[in-house]
## 1
Amino acid sequence: VGYDMTKEAATNCFSKTGLTPEDVDVIELHDCFSANELITYEALGLCPEGRAGELVDRGDTTYGGKWVINPSGGLISKGHPLGATGLAQCAELCWQLRGEAGKRQVPGAKL
């Protein structure tokens, strides 16, 4: 939703943990609009600015790619109920990390 605050949060998180975007297995992000999803890929450091389209074209954002992004189906799959979407994304990540996501399970998801 906000490129600058997403970039700052991601930078702080990776800096404090010593992790990088490549260490992440599964991502749930706010995809309220297709453009927001692309901007968020860049803000999270998944690709250089202006290269999010290439990330998608390579298949790096789905099963078999570098990351599985929004295995839940994203906001539209839930009807984007305001106020509940963030909670649903947190639940999806918990299920993924516990190995309880059923058919959506990202194999070996740890982070």
Note: DSSP finds four helices and two strands in the chain.
## 2
Amino acid sequence: MNNPIHHRGRSVSQREKIKNLCYPCHPCLNPHSSFNFQFSIINYQLSIIHYPLSIINYPLSIINLIPAQ
């Protein structure tokens, strides 16, 4: 499988850095296996669901810190 980053002439360490940064968000960059690829897609979809929930949850947790009267 061709890695487009590799063909831009970046060093391996830079490639690893980019891969490590982007891998959770972009499973297409370097799937090691079809299982890992499918799992990371599921993980990606879950994180899309989780992000708005955490925005909703954040103010609730602040409200929760206020001691009950």
Note: Helices lie at 12-22, 34-65.
## 3
Amino acid sequence: MAQTVQDTLSVTENTGSSSVNVSAIATESSVLLASGGNSLRVGVDTASGASIGTVNAFSFALRTGGESRIFIEGDGDVGIGTTASPTAKLEVAGAVKADSFQGDGAALTGVVKTTGDTMTGPLFIQGNLTVQGDTQTRSLTVQNNLTVLGNLDVTGTTTFRNIEQHQGDLELGNQDTDQVRIHGLVRSTHTSGVLQIGSPLNVSGTVIATAFRGNGSGLTGILRTGVFAANTITMPANAQRRISYARDNGKNHRFFIASVTPAVNSASVDWEQGVSIDTDGDRAYVLVIKNLLARDIQVSYRVHEILIP
């Protein structure tokens, strides 16, 4: 049987199933639980509707299985899944899932925002990174190191500065019309000091070098030289030798004395080179060596082949 109490109802013992119904016709119905200075109020009033919470500045928790799931501090800070008192208006221990966020995040810290907040830890992006905005002003600025474990594709005109410590291959451009412009010097940090180009090098302009290596046997359309092996001849005392090379396919020849055995001073051996033309109009390049000593000597000479395009 239901009983109606118009004043205060105190229940000190329950046996079996029981219920307490509190209703007020005028303005407010409430149940107040108090202990040790703390008080929990469950109430309904016509002014603010239904509410549940503490009357004084005490904390409040919603529990399941004896564990606190939602904890509200006396100052209003809310913790979800936290094991200690929350330290912010909302502190969540675990993942937060939402369909959307509203606001511009102007007061957010520790995250990327539109006003240029600073990231203090690593940023991992598993998908695409797109920088949007005006094509003249949009930019992605990394103050320290940027490490790319996969491929970095850049489209448009791009300026690179201080690209270093790259352990793999660096490829710029993927079309025959693409250009790589370098404002400054190209230096090799290879242990040999050599800057190697594995494909043909097409230079529009002047090439300045202090030396070239190789015999240039595959070069075409330029003036190049090749070196023939040293030739050694025996020169009798007071003798003269005449050596000639015929002109072949536009090649000129120059002769150089490599060594004289036994060693003699320069006045003891005379040599000259020139061009001779025979009766058929053929040209030959001539080296004339004269031994001015009264003893035999050995003369080594080299022939440089000069190709005239």
Note: Residues 81 and 95 are 10 Å apart (CA to CA).
## 4
Amino acid sequence: MLDTTRTLAPSTRPLPTARVPLAAETVLVAAFSTYLTLLTWAIVWKLRLPHVGESLSPVKWVPFAATAVFGPSAPAEVAANFLVFVPLGLLLGVLWPRRAWWSGTLLIAAISTTYEVLQFVLAVGAADITDVIANTTGGAVGLALVACAQTRSRFGAREVLQRAGGFALLVALIVSALAVVSLTP
């Protein structure tokens, strides 16, 4: 069999990727699953007991600006929407490193849009295009941070995020347990 990697120009050679040990992969998948569960609880039910509303809620189609029904987007809320999706980009970038940046960004946009549609259908909050824009931007920044870490870090983004993911998973589980305990009558 002919080895074609030697004939490729340096810029077109595929980057070597080390296989992550199963335990590290398990921690990252657990952190990702826990993050998505908490994100769903925070976005759809605003950290309250899950419920379904009475009627369909409104949709804000004009980003950032005030409309007849909605006021302008609060900068703190836009910033929170941005920040809460950065970990999604980080985790996606680490779990699926060979994914193109644009496909990762499209996946993040689809996840954000799904949350907004759920809020609309379940009548638990207003669906807002500003949220989709801020969430997608935050996730794209997370993807970019992983790409930078992979090219600039001698340790690699996976190793750093695996340790951070394990710690974040522990903190998330503790916070979730405390929140559930505080919600019970």
Note: The first strand starts at residue 59 and ends at 60.
